[in-house]
Amino acid sequence: MSQAATLPRATVRGSHRHGTGFWLIAFAFLTAMAFSTVPTPLYPLYMARDGFSTFMVTVVFAAYAVGVVISLILAGHVSDWVGRRRVLVPALLLELLAAGLFIVSTDLTVLLIARVITGLGVGMITATATAHLAELHAAHRPGAPAQRFEMVSTAANIGGLGFGPLIAGFLAQWVNAPLRTPYLVFALLLLLAVAAVLIAPETVKRPEVRPAYRPQRVSADHGDPAGYIAAAAAAFVAFAVFGLFTSVAPGFVAGTLNQPSRALAGVIVFVVFGAAAVAQIVTARLSARAKLTAGLLFEVAGLVVTVIGTHAESLVAFVLGGVLAGIGAGVLFKAAIGAVVAMAAPARRGEALAGLFLIGYFGLIIPVLGMGLGVRSFDTATVLTWFAAALTVMLATVALRLVPSNRG
């Protein structure tokens, strides 16, 4: 048979490999992101067992975000020349190490170290897995629209953050050793994720001469500095809302609302992140202006209803506020990414997006630690009101700067 006759069959085989690899990387991405939020419904148990205060819970939570920020700066970009799998496998092994630490000890120092290690792994995974999925999709379906990639990457990233607390909450509610069993289950899943990455095809051809290493550059100088800062503020607010529902909220539900169910805590976080993921998918065809407007309106509405639920000690209102805020945060963050992509020069787009993610993750650190300090002197309802007021001011700034400039 001639070479011309064999080429189509080889191309099809390659296409199938990349198609299978796409779903293997999606599974690994989902597992990694889910593991990062496993402790969320367990925080009240740590508080009861070892006497943690709400402030210490926020410190443990912020340790994760610190790890992500460090990793994004130092290693989030190196897969462009060393290869996707060479970054994903070590990152997943870091998460596996963190799972082992969670299993062997509930000591505060160990928890802090485990959360930092988790953050280091996630910082390496987020951009790398997203790029890997995009490349596998393009290799499997050349010339096809990117909608499948966008939906799957969103579901794996944001959806994974919701699945972690859901699974951990149900396991902690109905199995023995609630502070260890969820980590054992995820340790097994992480091992499967490592195997999935090793099976998936590599999509980066390593250069003959490796570029000189440098940390990821971050700059606001991307055509419209004021617009970039406004987009970064939107990312900051979106991540701050996610931080609220993955740190302080479970303790508030268990304590003030007298709902100690770990399964319920997991469900609440799941619906917040699930709403964000679904909203990102549903609004994919909206214009940039419509996304920004919808995100801002839902975010403000969600914050208001959450505050009302907190003051009224109403679980229904609190959860409804979380769903609305989750929708707003998901759409707003996607709109912020779109705004930055539009304003940044192609050669500096990675740098611009890296800066956006970094500022977003600072939204997981500063407001959450501020709330943790606040609840040491004031009740949760008062502190949450201040939190919502500060974020609303930032949202107003975003609205004034970004919405009028997005006509498309």
Describe the structure.
By secondary structure, this protein is mainly α. It has two domains: 13-201, MFS general substrate transporter like domains (Growth Hormone, Chain: A), CATH 1.20.1250; 217-408, Growth Hormone, Chain: A, CATH 1.20.1250.20. Helix content is 79%, strand content 0%. The chain has helices spanning 3-36, 43-50, 54-74, 79-82, 85-104, 108-140, 147-174, 181-199, 225-255, 262-282, 288-312, 315-343, 349-374, 380-402.
Task: Quickly describe the structure.
With 408 residues, the protein is mainly α. 79% of the residues lie in helices and 0% in strands. The longest helix has 34 residues, at 3-36.
Note the main attributes of this structure.
408 residues; mainly alpha; Growth Hormone, Chain: A; 2 domains; 0% strand; globular; disordered N terminus; MFS; MFS_dom
- The chain-level structural class is mainly alpha
Give the H and E element order: HHHHHHHHHHHHHH
What is the CATH C level class of the largest domain, in words? Mainly Alpha
Percent of residues in beta strands: under 5%
**Number of domain modules:** 2
Tally the helices: what do you get?
Answer: 14
Gyration radius from CA atoms, angstroms: 21 Å
Could you tell me how far the N terminus lies from the C terminus, measured between alpha carbons in angstroms? Answer: 53 Å
Reported CATH architecture of the largest domain:
Up-down Bundle
pLDDT < 50 stretches: 1-13
Shape: globular
Instruction: Return the CATH topology of the largest domain.
Output: Growth Hormone, Chain: A
CATH homology superfamily of the largest domain: MFS general substrate transporter like domains
Membrane topology: Multi-pass membrane protein
Main location: membrane
Organism: Kineosporia babensis
InterPro entries: MFS (IPR011701), MFS_dom (IPR020846), MFS_trans_sf (IPR036259), MFS_Transporters (IPR050171)
